[in-house]
Hints:
Blueprint: E1 2-3, E2 12-13, H1 20-36, E3 47-53, H2 58-67, H3 71-78, E4 82-87, H4 95-104, E5 115-118, E6 123-126, H5 130-142, E7 154-156, H6 176-187, H7 190-193, H8 198-223, H9 229-257, E8 261-266, H10 268-276, H11 281-303, E9 308-313, E10 319-323, H12 324-328, H13 332-337, H14 347-354, E11 373-376, E12 380-384, H15 394-400, H16 402-410, E13 414-421, E14 424-429, E15 432-434, H17 450-459, E16 469-473, E17 475-477, E18 480-483, E19 489-490, E20 501-506, H18 519-530
Parallel strand pairs: 3-8, 3-9, 7-8, 10-18
Antiparallel strand pairs: 1-2, 4-20, 5-6, 9-20, 10-19, 11-12, 12-16, 13-14, 13-16, 14-15, 17-18
Helix pairs in contact: 1-9, 1-11, 4-18, 8-9, 9-10, 9-11, 10-11
Amino acid sequence: MAILPAGGGEATRVSAVIPPAMHLWAHGLVRRVRVQVPPSPARRARKLLIVHLDGVPKGLLDEALVAGRMPFLSRLIRSGQFHLDEAFWGAPTSTPYFQAGLLYGMRHSNLPAYSWFDRELGRKVRMNTPTDALTIDQRLRGAGRTSLLDGGGHGYFSLFRAGAENALSMSTLASFEQMSRAFSYEMMGLLSARTRSVWDYLRSLGMDTWAAAREVIHWARGLHDWRHEPAFLFSHVFLQRLGWSFAFTKALVDMARGVPVVYLVYGNYDEVAHRRGPRSQLAQAELHRVDTYLAELYAVAGAAEQPYDVVILSDHGHVDCLPWEQRKGQSLTQWLLAPHGDGPLHDDLVQGLCEGRPRPAPDSTPRAPFTPVAIECGNFAHVYLSGEPRPLDARALLARHPEILARVTRSPDIGIVALRRGNGAVALVRDGVYTVDTLDRAPLSSEFSKRAVADFLRVLPTMSTAGDLVLFGEAVQRGGTVGFAWEFGSHGGLTRTEANSLVCWPAKAPVDLSNLSHCAQLHERLAATYLDSTPRLRLVP
């Protein structure tokens, strides 16, 4: 039996990548959906499915391929039908920054982390809060840029709706009215595309929930800490299992209907890696789980009336995280504000921050009260020392907060302190001040990526939402850093593993995704191939 591969091109043997039974199943599913659900009105020369493996570093995926934990993806790459390449998307290595680049093509999105203190709003912003995600999506949309999902695309589990026709992103959850209006549209085709019986699914879900509850109890008792565990169990049942099953099935329906672009985010690995560690048994199991889903997505992509090009990618990697609170016995905020007696700031640091000019005199000017805010973003943290609309630069920090500068630069658990100096930014590493041009001389641990550090220093002056100080946990073991949040797997920092993303695409697709050095480049190449040359922007409520 021979079929056309999902990336297009000449016919190949089904058995080379997927078995004949799956090929027949996929064609049957497409026929059922097309009989019961109207086709998408959008028309494109080529169709695109993007599968986003949240948090998976290329190095770990390579290990899974070799170890046989992802047999389908291994066959796909070994067949020569797909390329697999390492990618660098820029810094910070966080999902909001990546999605702004992928969907909108933005190099300077002003998104410093997954959560931060927003000076314009005067409060903390979190991307897993729907109203916050909506606010940021509106900011990005307001820049007037074309999104990959404009013109009839669909997105699932993305932070931003980004012009999608459907309403299944974090930002759309902010409006009950919007979700209720979209309910019938979102349910369309689900029954015709289900991959197992309702009873079989419910029985499997019940067994999985019971096993997950037992694991959570065992973990929390061993750690003597229950924080995040109820939320983790809720996430496991309602997002990682129910939510993902819904999104996955809808993606199958979309391809059968001919939706021009489908963006599907698999966040299960990332969620588990945060709570149990990126190399934990539970996290590794999610790679094996998603491999089966990838095979079915690939089969339906090839069975669609107009086959889809399938692009598989990740946004960042994950490192093991040793929580600051576990090491210090107190949170970062408590440690920053507690009396210390650290001694004066090192003279070399003062000279480097002043750039040869005299040290500024202490500034005790009366100002509106402001309690310093430390946003613990994983293995990095944004520290806000002023409620003013503009961030403080090096000279202002020397004049107003020299004791905090001394404290963070003397801590052995903080590997890098980044801050603004003049029109640029510098990294403080072990009593030295380093710019992008002198970073090669910095005594950084080999775990850090100097490419990522340099990229972060370039973007920091454009990021008004970032803290006055940005702290990065020290690399204290191979593949592991100190983390400021209470979690055991982190990203957003500047290690080689976190910057080690991946992209996998069809060898015969009319797009080359090799040698990418920023997520905005990924947008540019995909948009040139898969967006209409004159897209029509529409207002998304």
